[in-house]
Design a protein that fits this description.
The structure is a single chain. The protein is α/β, with parallel strands linked by helices and 192 residues long. The protein has helices at 64-67, 69-82, 98-106, 110-134, 150-162, 182-191; strands at 12-17, 21-27, 30-31, 138-142, 172-175.
Length: 192
């Protein structure tokens, strides 16, 4: 909010897509942790009813299970096992990574595009849900998965728009800009 992707905004939701899915909520320039410290636990919003495996949190169907780097790779392995569709991802096999999936999707690989659409769908659901609760000015997407850049934002935005038909006025979706220095900036801001 202070110096990064949400610079100039007073209200934002940050989503970090890395090994897990983290987040934070800032309203009127104040971090919202909530009464029980669960404010911003975006990765554990339930989004997928048909999920059967348990998340690290103990829940089932969490956003983190499909939209984290780990979740994207797992989703790709599931797709490869479910179809004999040709894909460059098959070269990596069980060692497939989120980067492999997103790079292949950018190149038009059909199976990788299917996985990316699934990821974008569930992120769109989560952002739409958060939007209906806190209505931020901007969603800032960071973490290693966000290195897929505008390509990923476009997929997320498509579903976010679909799931928020209530208004044409809604939060922008942007990339984080501070990378690994975000924590340093945040600590400095708290002191100031």
């Amino acid at each position: 909010m202070w110096q990064g992707g949400g610079k100039g905004c007073r209200d934002l939701v940050m989503i970090t897509l890395g090994t897990g899915v983290g987040g934070g909520v800032i309203i009127d320039q104040k971090i919202i942790a909530g009464r029980h410290g669960l404010g911003g636990e975006i990765g554990h919003i339930h989004v997928r009813d048909e999920e059967t495996e348990h998340c690290n949190c103990g829940g089932v169907g969490c956003l983190e299970q499909v939209s984290s780097a780990t979740g994207i790779a797992r989703e790709a392995r599931r797709r490869m096992a479910a179809t004999d569709k040709d894909s460059v991802l098959r070269k990596a096999g069980d060692r497939v990574t989120a980067k492999d999936v997103l790079d292949a999707a950018k190149e038009g690989d059909e199976l990788a595009l299917e996985v990316t659409e699934t990821v974008g769908h569930y992120l769109g659901v989560a952002l739409a849900t958060a939007s209906m609760i806190v209505d931020p000015e901007v969603f800032v997407i960071g973490g290693g998965v966000s290195r897929a850049g505008q390509f990923l934002l476009d997929v997320i935005r498509k579903y976010y728009e679909q799931f928020t038909p209530i208004s044409k006025n809604k939060a922008r979706i942007v990339l984080a800009t501070l990378g690994n220095d975000a924590g340093i900036y945040g600590a400095a801001r708290l002191i100031l």
